[in-house]
Structures are given as C-alpha cells and as structure tokens.
TrEMBL record:
This is Class I SAM-dependent methyltransferase. It holds the Pfam family Methyltransf_24. Residues 1-16 form the signal peptide. Keywords: Signal. InterPro entries: SAM-dependent_MTases_sf.
Amino acid sequence: MLRLLLLLVGSGFAFAAPKWWEVSSEENAKSLALYFDREARRYFVYTEGTIASSEKAFSMYFNVARGPTVKNICEVGFNAGHSTAIYLNANPDAQVYSFDIGQFPYTVGNSELMKSLFPDRFEYISGPSAETVKAFAEERPDVKCDVISVDGDHSTEGTLADLRNFQKLASCRNWVLMDDAGWNSTNSAWQMAKDAGILTQVECFADMNPRPDYQFMEYPENRSWCLGFFNVQDDTCPAWFQESPNTERTFVRPIEI
C-alpha cells in the first residue's frame, strides 16, 4: 500500500487531506457542536437545550450513530444543529436528513451553514414534521433510516405523530432516540407508542447532574432521553423476540454520577 501511494504521489496525483470536522472523534464532534452553538448566539435569541449539554447523552448519541450498518440518520428537531453536527462527525459514511419547522432565524442560518460544510451528506426539510415526515416516506421509498432522533414537537400528540410516521421509514436494524423523556407529554407519547406496538424500549435515562465539557456554557438541571427501536413490519427483517419486553409504564432511570 505504501509503495502504491508513493507511486501515485510521484506520478503527480494529489491527495486532499480531510477537514478536521470530517475526521470522526468525540473531541471533533464536541468542537463542531460548540461551533454551531456560537453561530446560533449571533442572533441573540434563546437557544433550547441540547444533547451536548450532557456528557452522558452526548456519548450515547455519538456511539449509536457509529453503528456499522448505519447509513441514514433521520431527525426531527434541527434547532441550532448541535445533534446534527455530532451525527455527521460520528459517522463519516452516513447521510443526515433533518426535519424542522424552522421557526427561529438561527435554525435557517445554521442549516445553510451545515449544508456548506457537508454538501453531500446533509439535507434539511422545512415544515411541520407531522406533514413532512409522512410526505418524505411516500416520496423517498429508497431511504430507510437506521438511526432516528425525535426531538421536535414536545406535545403528546406531536411526539406520538413523529413516532408513528418514523416507523414507516425505519430500517430493519434501527435505533430510535427520544429526547426529554422526563417530560410528562413526551413520556406519555413514548408509552403510547410502546402500547401500540410501534416500538420496543431498551432503556430510558436521566442525567441528574449534566455538565457540558465547556466551562462557559450554561447547563440544565437534568437531561433525559429514551433508547429503543421501531418494530418494522417486514418479513425480510429478523425477529428480535417472541414476547414484547415492554413495560406498562415508562420509568426514566437516573444515571449514577
């Protein structure tokens, strides 16, 4: 291999080094998320909480995105782009499809910036997710989502609609992550999705002492999220269990400090 590289270099072939944000590492993902946080603050408006505000949440989202069969990552809730930045850095082979209503100026600006950094790997779909995710599933049957992140409308109805619609886009080997699982509204929607057989829960977590790896950033009192997978109605998909392991209530387990 080294000899081949030397021959190519000697023949005049030039190799463009990847940009730092294209090189996957937890440190680069954090730096990229921090960069998008700075860009959002140019607009001098409130930016909502992010998974980057909890080291434990960040680590799980980063590593879930790195799965060897993950090719498409779909999310509701681009907001300022923190999670998108983490996904794109975590898995250099993955495409990210981000759905957002685009109600904040910084969301539109940061989505354009993300597209400039990842022109071939990022697609932003604007509009209410209850409509756009359903339309995307109908118009893009070639796209199946291997990782799905739900962090949009936090009402029970809105969250449940996102979970229902994303089930139709899920691949056989998928992960679904839902942020703010400690909210009554989102927790209820997650439980309803379990009861309806839409998804299977693996675990729900709460970081009761979140501290981002940035000294000057504010941090919330806690961060909570759920991890599971959609039950895909496809005979070509492997069966994971004979009896559903879902519980009758959704408990959010505190993570030990």
